[in-house]
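Shift notes (night). Ran Sporulation protein Cse60 while the centrifuge was going.
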Amino acid sequence: MIQVKEFLDTDASYAETRANQFLAELKEEQIVNVCYGSILKSSASGVGFQRSAILVVYKSGESTPK
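Came back to this:
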């Protein structure tokens, strides 16, 4: 079964770290695609912060659901 898992930056964690931890648990042949995007988010004070989003498309060991 093909599945997706999304990782987003928050104020407390970074998408890259969590995505790399997840990818380390997969076998290389399970990985279908990894997509990355980033935006610049402004705070009320006008300070800009980069936010990242990572989407991992992978094959799970589960069969097609019934």
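Residues 15-25 form the longest helix (11 residues). Helices lie at 15-25.
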